[in-house]
Amino acid sequence: MNSFCMSVLCFKKLCFSRYPSHARIWVAPIHSGLVDQKKIDYDRAMDDWYHFVDETQTFYGVDMSSLSKPFTEEQRKYYLETSLWNNLHPNQVIGKPAVIMEIDCLTSSVNDILSLQANISSSITAENSRFCGFGGWFDVHFRGRKESPAKHEIELTTAPSEDLGTHWGQQVFLLHPSIRVSRGDEMTINFSMYRSKENHRLLEVEFGCELRQSSGKSLPSFSKKFHIE
């Protein structure tokens, strides 16, 4: 997106039609078996580490336990706190998708996309499912511009598809542990996305979520931070 905004700024004085002209970013609650697999992978990595610590102490007299805390933090970030590329099937989307950002590609600048905050809502549409996290994707619209509008508007989407979609896939943000939900449950989501302090090309994402069951009972709210690398 940075590159696209810069290209528009460089050539906006020319009488070209800019394509795509508009874009939207979506998120939706999902179900995914990856939530279990990533937890298994994390547990195995930690088991291997503690086995290594025990062996180096027993056979070489070297105590590596002082590295356990940073190693644990590193593995937790990699396995449990970093988003994943995945091709979701539409059946894995268990709630109503919501738009978190709309972008006018003809007028937006890099500064406009340095950070993003959005308050959105969604409702669960699947019966007796596991809320395993969020899926994110985007679509773009080809509308031309005011001076040269497109004769026929075209939309290209990277949403979950039965035909495996596009090479873009979707970004998946997994929750540990998952939460039991059912049709009619309502969620309010506070979404934030900003640039990583370590590398401006990487992103940090935070979901704050309040979930109310169809019975009216509120479940404990949560906030979860993810890394997009």
TrEMBL record:
UniProt superkingdom: Eukaryota
InterPro entries noted in UniProt: Arg_MeTrfase, PRMT_dom, SAM-dependent_MTases_sf
Gene Ontology biological-process entries: methylation
Keyword DNA repair: no
Gene Ontology molecular function terms on file: histone methyltransferase activity; protein-arginine N-methyltransferase activity
Annotated ranges, domain Protein arginine N-methyltransferase: 41-208
A Pfam family the protein falls into: PRMT_C
Alphabetically ordered keywords of this record: Methyltransferase, S-adenosyl-L-methionine, Transferase
GO CC entries: nucleus
PANTHER family: PROTEIN ARGININE N-METHYLTRANSFERASE, PROTEIN ARGININE N-METHYLTRANSFERASE PRMT10
Protein's recorded name: Protein arginine n-methyltransferase prmt10
Organism: Nicotiana attenuata
Taxonomic placement: Eukaryota, Viridiplantae, Streptophyta, Embryophyta, Tracheophyta
Gene: PRMT10_1
